[in-house]
Design a protein that fits this description.
Length: 259
């Protein structure tokens, strides 16, 4: 069930009883309430970076479970999303590259049993997201990390608790593999760690080896709701996610590789 029908009182009857003149036993139940250990999205993206041609080629694996599967697997499989939802549910991992991408994908694997684990693979490219100034290069990260946040949440004049859609774990990880040896220049600008009453958010940027840099963004919603006097915790995490989605990855070609 979608998150907005979870933990809801419901009447449970057998299908054939719909034609009965009288239903003998009425059973009222509460629908399933999912948790963060079930609602998981993991996106691993290998991004090959050609510094000579200024070209990015991405190979992505998207793993969906629980509410992430319920709410977004049809986006990948049929290019369909519930129009009443937060628009960020309508962004595939390649949104920054393709915008409203019309391509649909066949699942690499799909389970019909809860929590409906589903995996997709996709490839995409761009020659418009990397800029070169001498030995330095900037990769524009605008909209590369489609975590589900509400952009208009504010602590000003708020009188009610904040309820996120569902508790969850959302990891988006990029491995940038460069055609030449490089040095990461803006690790300190990217790295962040927040832990508060809403959840946790971490960005980790590491130089794995001379030609590979990893940037991982992990957003965990751990709270069922946030008290009104703690709304600033939601604002802080949302702001950090927005900042990353307006940021850049800066590298410099290793001097040993310059000609």
């Amino acid at each position: 069930l979608p998150f907005y029908w979870e933990n809801t009182p419901a009447l449970y009857i057998k299908f054939y009883s719909l034609w009965a003149q009288k239903i003998a036993d009425l059973n009222f139940i509460n629908t399933h309430a999912s948790n963060a250990s079930e609602n998981i999205r993991v996106c691993n993206v290998k991004t090959t970076v050609d510094l000579n041609q200024l070209q990015l080629d991405c190979e992505a694996t998207v793993s969906l479970s629980g509410q992430f599967s319920t709410m977004t697997r049809n986006l990948y499989a049929f290019n369909h999303v519930d129009s009443t939802l937060n628009p960020l549910y309508g962004r595939k991992i390649n949104y920054a590259f393709a915008g409203d991408d019309p391509i649909v994908l066949k699942p690499q694997s799909r389970s019909t049993a809860y929590p409906f684990k589903t995996n997709f693979k996709l490839n995409y490219s761009s020659s418009e997201m990397i800029e070169n100034k001498g030995s330095e290069y900037q990769i524009k990260l605008k909209d590369w990390f489609p975590h589900i946040i509400e952009v208009d949440v504010s602590a000003a004049k708020r009188n009610l608790k904040y309820y996120p859609d569902f508790q969850s774990q959302d990891l988006i990880k990029y491995f940038f593999v460069f055609s030449d040896s490089v040095n990461l220049l803006n690790k300190e600008d990217l790295d962040i760690a927040i832990s508060n009453s809403f959840g946790t958010y971490t960005i980790t940027a590491n130089q794995v080896n001379p030609t590979t840099i990893m940037v991982a963004s992990e957003f965990r919603v751990t709270s069922e709701f946030v008290e009104v006097n703690k709304i600033g915790d939601v604002v802080d995490i949302n702001a950090a996610i927005r900042k990353l989605n307006e940021g850049v990855l800066m590298v410099q070609k290793d001097s040993a590789g310059l000609h």
